[in-house]
Amino acid sequence: MKRTLIYALVLAALGVAVWFGVLQKQVGTRSLAQNAFAYPDTANISKIFLADLGNKEILLERKSPGTWTVNGKFNARRDILETLLSTLVQVETKYPVNKAQYDLAVREIAGNHTKVEIYDKKGVRAMTYYVGPPTVRNRGNFMKLEKGKDPYVVHIPGLDGFLQTRYVVDEADWRDRTIFRYTPPQVQELSVTYATNPDSSWTLKRTGENAFSLSSSLETDNRTLNVRATTAYLMHYRNIQLEAYMNDWIKRDSVLGSTPICTLSVKTMAGEVNNVYLYFRSINQRSKLQSDPLGNPLDFDRDKYYASLREGKDLALVQDFVFGKLFIGPSYFYQPEPGQRVP
Asked: What are the pLDDT digits (tens) for 293-341?
């Protein structure tokens, strides 16, 4: 019995050895390190160049920790940048393309690829490879190193999908959508002006490290400005994003030529002034609310506005969900602390 078991184990071992030998002949002797396409030290990257066959090119340059520019024009979107950087780290060689698919993979990469160039802090090109189309089952992509001869299937372990969409080459998609990104200590002055309700307009000015003054038409009755509430409001300006740029819209100039319903202005301690002008958006088929509770048609969208940025250089679409918390009146700053008596 023991001898029979030993024979069975020996035969099994021989079978495995033969199988691997056949497989090796099928795919060739091309062996490649699992991390051959990875660049794990992203802190050492000074710039990344991406280009496809449609003449779309993206040059990402690191200007400071966390800040990258796109084609020397504007800051890069953080979410897309973080996705790309994590991809550069996580990609792994899955397996070499076998002989049956070899010619197909070479043609696929040649006819549809994104070139990726990675440069180190010294400006030296450290790695170049080509990201081809996804495999038939969309579980990885055909890829090839510039200095390599053979194509490989490359993936991210645990990701059930393909990689090509992580190497974005459309310049518009890379543009940072941040409107306001200020911490409370960065704000020197802030004002909100309502065109149709000027009594609710106000201007907040910093007078000290944790001291502010407020200008408005509100009768304050000698009430003290609530510093806690003021700081809580300023915290909203840490990350205000737009939904989409509308610069190619045919009615762009018409909107910018109308009267804004609200103007938000931030002046930083460094002297930078950021003015944002908001406009009503007409009701359209995509508007969530088409009528009021009584069934009367609405004349403007309640969920979205147009915003003029950088003194009219850009028109954007913004959400009330994001901006609504910024629309307050001067009485907000005089709200009493819990337990405090109102004069």
From this structure: 656 665 778 789 999 999 999 999 999 999 999 999 999 999 876 555 5
pLDDT band at 25 (very low <50, low <70, confident <90, very high): very low
CB under 8 A, 24+ apart: contacts of 300-305 = 304/243, 305/261, 305/278, 305/279, 305/280, 305/281
Number of neighbours of residue 307 by Cβ within 10 angstroms: 25
Structure tokens at 264: 């938000």
One-character DSSP codes across 28-78: TT----TTTT----GGGEEEEEEEETTS-EEEEEEEETTEEEETTTEEBPH
Mean pLDDT of 52-74: 94
Which of 217, 205, 69, 48 shows the shortest CA–CA distance to 125? 48
Query: What average pLDDT does the chain have?
Result: 86
Contacts of 218 (CB under 8 A, 6+ apart): 199, 202, 329, 330, 331, 334
The string of pLDDT tens digits covering residues 267-285 is 999 999 999 999 998 766 6
CA distance 239 to 178: 7
Please report, as a single letter, which amino acid is at residue 108: E
* 174-194: pLDDT as tens digits: 999 999 999 999 999 999 999
**Residue 71, amino acid:** N
Cα gap 98→153, rounded to integer Å: 10
User: Which range among 6-15, 27-36, 145-154 shows the weakest confidence by mean pLDDT?
Assistant: 6-15
Partner residues linked to 241 by β-bridges = 178
Tokens 């969409």, residue located: 165
In sequence order, the 6+-apart residues with CB closer than 8 A to the CB of 323 are 240, 278, 305
What residues does 263 pair with on adjacent strands? 193, 277
d(CA 263, CA 308): 10
